[in-house]
Write a structure and sequence with these properties.
Layout: E1 4-12, E2 15-21, E3 30-33, E4 36-38, E5 52-57, E6 62-68, E7 75-82, H1 85-106, H2 126-145, E8 148-156, H3 160-164, H4 177-190, E9 205-209, E10 224-228, H5 229-235, H6 240-243, H7 248-258, H8 263-280, E11 285-290, H9 291-300, H10 307-312, E12 329-333, E13 342-344, E14 350-353, E15 368-373, E16 380-387, E17 393-398, E18 401-407, E19 411-415, E20 420-423
Parallel strand pairs: 1-4, 5-8, 7-12, 8-11
Antiparallel strand pairs: 1-2, 3-4, 5-6, 6-7, 9-10, 12-20, 13-14, 15-16, 15-19, 16-17, 17-18
Helix pairs in contact: 1-2, 2-8
């Protein structure tokens, strides 16, 4: 199997020891398979385990998480959680379109309904609520596996105004340094921290107007991009269509990227305080920090930008970090399937049947299984994600590819489906 992350509760010189092992089996002292966690049975009462701090860097698509020992700076565990918020949004849009089409066909003269749906206080759209729930789930899981006594969350982006004036509020934010820092950081994320015209990275980038101000261009975020000094000087006040007339593919890409909405930023801003209340409900001490502080901590220690490293740098409590040997666990939220009774074609008409029962012979699609086939054409040992069939003949997705037609009789469950997929 591929590498699995291992948290060992082994008191050793007053700290929690952690390492990464390769395994092909399941031991008696296995507590959790993802993250792969063992608890040693040998007791050492003379040693104590240092408490850990869980650090979280929430994002619209990815959330970084890290377990840090504040006293030593050791990063014990790291993970990057990929959310499915935008997939939920698209699924709800598709469902709404199908229902409207069906109602127009079958209930044309149905009596109108009015104020028949109410929303509870603090309601969030499902695509946003899923992000909060994903993080909450992993906070609870990690608390069961490690001695977490404090949490740090990145709550805001660059709030330079607040740093200078703690009493600032309302319209005072409309002018000053905050807008510039917010805009620049957003553009860095939007344009992948590279020059939009030549693609160069790791150089000083300047904010560039796609449609020049001299020719009526605005300061709208949709008219701004990033450019290196050389390209910015070369473009000057030229129209972008003229400047890139010899590179139509790049021109099309820039114009398309410029119209990209602020959905990512809106998702983070909407959920950050809801997540803060969820973390406070755990009863642990919760520290918050701005994005500016996270970036400062990361640059001070000359660390590369990754989601889990950003998480480790959140908050004022950040010590000198020890990242040696740390390999993040990549977690993807997949959900638990769909309730559709049948699949539809692109026009919304039923096209194929969906079985009513998810479990077949004790297995369901998404389980990790180990199959040892001793006879027949498919002799061998296979480990991977299973796709069940009502006939009892399963398909297994292994690291080497898809293996079809494996009987359930040869399959042994290793890890039950939990709505997430994992990679090292």
């Amino acid at each position: 199997m591929h590498e699995k992350h291992l948290i060992i509760e082994e008191p050793c010189e007053g700290k929690l020891s952690c390492t990464v092992l390769k395994t092909n089996g399941v031991g008696d002292n296995l507590v959790e398979f993802n993250p792969f966690t063992l608890i040693l049975k040998e007791a050492r009462p003379e040693s104590t385990i240092s408490p850990l701090r869980l650090k979280i860097d929430p994002g619209a698509k990815y959330t970084g998480m890290a377990l840090v020992n504040d006293s030593t700076g050791e990063v014990v565990f790291a993970a990057e959680l990929k959310h499915r918020g935008f997939a939920i949004r698209d699924a709800l849009t598709s469902r709404r379109q199908l229902r409207r089409s069906r109602r127009n066909r079958k209930t044309r003269y149905r009596k109108p309904r009015f104020l028949n749906r109410t929303r509870r206080s603090g309601w969030l759209a499902p695509s946003l609520q899923s992000r909060v729930d994903n993080i909450k789930t992993w906070v609870e899981r990690l608390r069961k596996l490690a001695p977490i006594e404090a949490i740090s969350q990145e709550l805001a982006r660059f709030d330079m105004q607040l740093m200078r004036n703690p009493d600032i509020q309302g319209k005072e934010y409309q002018q000053g340094t905050l807008a510039g820092y917010e805009t620049r950081e957003y553009l860095l994320e939007k344009w992948n921290r590279q020059c939009a015209y030549c693609g160069i990275k790791d150089v000083p980038l300047q904010i560039e107007h796609i449609h020049p101000r001299a020719k009526g261009g605005s300061n709208s975020i949709t008219n701004l991009t990033l450019s290196c000094c050389k390209c910015n000087t070369k473009k000057g006040t030229k129209d972008i269509k003229y400047f890139l007339k010899k590179d139509p593919l790049r021109l099309e890409k820039i114009l398309k990227q410029a119209k990209k909405t602020l959905a990512d930023a809106a998702a983070v801003n909407t959920t950050r305080f809801v997540l803060l209340e969820v973390l406070k409900a755990t009863g642990l001490s919760v520290e918050t920090g701005s994005g500016g502080l996270t970036k400062f901590n990361r640059n001070q220690q000359s660390l590369e930008k990754q989601h889990w490293i950003d998480a480790a740098c959140v908050g004022k409590s950040t010590p000198i970090l020890n990242l040696k040997g740390v390999k993040p666990l990549l977690i993807t939220a997949n959900g638990h399937g769909t309730r559709q009774s049948c699949r539809t074609d692109k026009y919304g008409f039923p096209s194929r049947y969906v079985p009513r029962l998810k479990f077949v012979k004790g297995f369901q699609t998404g389980d990790i299984v180990k199959a040892i086939v001793a006879t027949g054409k498919k002799v061998g040992e296979y480990i991977g994600r299973v796709a069940v069939r009502t006939t009892g003949s399963f398909n297994i997705s292994t690291a080497k590819g898809l293996v079809q037609g494996i009987s359930h009789k040869y399959c042994t469950p290793i890890y039950k489906k939990d709505g997430y997929s994992y990679a090292a």
